[in-house]
Specification:
three-stranded mixed beta sheet, alpha/beta, 13 strands
Amino acid sequence: DTFLIKRGKWFKRIFRKIGGWPLATGNFFRKLFKKPVKQRPPAHHQIKLRNLTRFYFKEKLSQGLSDLLDHYYKAINQTTLLVWQIDEQIDHVIDNFIGEEKDISLAVEVSQRVPDSLAMLEKCKEEMKALAHDILQKQAEQFEDAYYKVGTFELSNRQFNAAKTAKLHYKINQGYLSKTKAWNNTVIILSDDWEIDAELYGMIYKGLESFHKNTTIVERRLKKNVQAEIDKIYDELSQYKQELEKHSDADDKDLKALLETQREKVNRQLEDKLVAQASEVILSQDLPSLINSIEASLKLEMKQLEERRAIVKGVKYDEPTRSSSLHYISPRELINFESWPRFQAAIKSCKVEITAKINDLQQELFQLSQIAAFNIESAMSLIGEDDKKNKPYDVAIEGIDRTINKTQALSEHLEAIRNTVNKDLYISLQKLNSSLEQFTDNENIYEIRVRIAKAKAIERSKRLKDEWARRFRNIVPIVWGLIKNNYNKGNNLVQGLFKKYGLSKQTTAISTEIADFLAEAQLAVERLPFVYQRLFKSIPLQDSNLFEGRKTELNELNNAYNNFMKGRFAATVITGEKGTGVTTLLNFFSKELSTSCEMIRLDSKRSLESSDDLLAFFSESLGKKFDNVDKLVAHLNAGSKKVLILENLQKHYLKRVNGFEALIILAEIISLTSKHVFWVTTCTIYAWSYLDKTIRLSEHFGYQIAMNEFEDEIITKIITKRHQVSGYNLQFEPATNHLNSKKFKKLGEKERQEQLHKEYFNDLNKIVKSNIGLALVYWLRSTKEVSDNTIHIASLKDLDFGFMSSLPLDKLHALTYLLLHDGLSEEEFCKCLNKSLVRCRAILYPLFEDGILVENNGYYLINPLLYRQTVALLKSKNIIH
């Protein structure tokens, strides 16, 4: 007891004794008179048991148990750190294995540390049980001691009232929350730190996996495909040499006959067949796309990185961490800041180098036949000449030997390509991996964060400066724009009046520049590298890597098929402009169903207008003679369910009286076979609109899938992705208005290219409007030249197709027929117009000569470069809708 308690107890005893004097005096007299003595009542005190119990067994016990949190979290974090160290050792072993080091085995103690860590956790559980028991025992003892004292001056009940207990409860609760939050911060930091390492190493190993997978493919393609073609050329040349050696003693007549035979073989077998075939094989290997797939796999891994991770500088995982110490980073931003741009530059450089070496390989390949032919001709020219120094046989043999040596040099070029992939690209990948490993160190992360913050601050200040400068500069242009706009309005009004009264001269002929642009379209494309032509060739896709968009349409088509399999009417028509990817969509749909049911795919190349034409078409396509519609229907309904894809409905009619018979009968066949055949048809959107308004064709189809317009970014992405696969650099050439712009001249080269890139794709999207085929055609035609592994793209701003508006009415109607039928022959065109061949040719030939039409296998079609302008013109004349 304290001094005050001791004094208090002394006074308490004194007062109790004094308080007992009256009873003692009374008992004295009771004893004298022999009466019963009264007992003094015992001292008592009031115990508020509920408050007391709550205080010790709810609040104080919780407060004591909360101290076990430190013990718990330390044990968990120590075990986690141990497993993390084992994970790091595994990464080290993998690094050694990749680096071909000898020591690639885990130490024995590493495998034993996991059971030891689990045993440590079990021990921790027992320790926590013992500690909890001690805490409970201590509270019980304190409760018992207080139980006997409470209610006295030694221990007041007021200390355990509800208000004070609630206050203590709040304090304990806040302390618990603060401690758990601090420990949770430590756990989050430990988890994020480990997960950053796991994600980065996952990205490293994914890149190495993709590298080895694709380099193996490159090795196999070069060795199995390309080298095999070179070996064929080598064998062919060796055969020429052997034939010459057999006739080393032949006279001039026999030698000349032999050389003539070999020259013919060089032209026919070597140049036209083996060299051309080898060149095609080289380009078909598509090596840049394999390199691009490595970049794509790493980019996909980088996209899967978490955007927000917590780190702490100098963190200790055996103690709680304050929230104010936490810092959050974005691993993706860290990689994008330095590592990824350098790797992308290396990838691009590798693709450009490979493309350049493939071009060199091709050039030397094409020279083989020229060398052989030239030397054979030189040998032939010596026959009959009295030249003692040069003998025809020796010249021929030496020429063949040089050609064979050149062929052997081609193998060295293949080895150079392999080295570029296996060494240069691997070095770039290793540099990326090294930089990723640096991000596993928090100190490096802090340093890079500071650099990123500085770069952002500089960029922000630059943007603010540019923004204020832009606003200031815009004051004058706004005023000038108002003046210029009002002037243009007045000028247009005057010019309109001049045109109205015939005072101005109208330009009705196609301009020379446009004529040259249209006429040289094919020549411009042929000047491009083959790999570039192949990438941008407007043909249906089979490779899903270049497929973009159209997921909604593909889902609708699959939904229609599923309903057909459930027994519902699901005949489907897909409508869209020519070039919007209808055939590509069907290719991927067919690929998905290729193993689940019978697939029939038909496409008419000529226009059908009668029932006989339709039956002949099905007879030829299905390989069975059909005399009438009933036999055709019976054939289609026979057997199991099947999918029949019929492309180009616009070819199943002619826009004339009685020209719809084939299409009407086809609609009837679709209805009669809809239970057993899933009909998928395609039609150009303008022909469909016409047919639906004339014969209500849509009533015969359960599903109509429109190839909707997608965002402008999709076209940009499609073009950019194909260009990136090529590995060429890109240079946009300025238009005339750019060369006359002072503002454009003040820009740096990088800013100029960014502006030209943006303007080009803005112009392109305005023209093509989601038409992928048109976009590819315009892109190829926009290529100005190829120099130093760079594709130069000309601007679209200088093109003026205003001459289209001056076409006479008969030519507009001709374009309408060609648009609605997607091309017509002269005979079909005559039927549609119901005019003589001479009069029809008078319409078609001028359009063809001006480049507005193109001819393909006897069919006239609208020039793809003028397709959009033709559609816009016919819509403006209210001819099509």
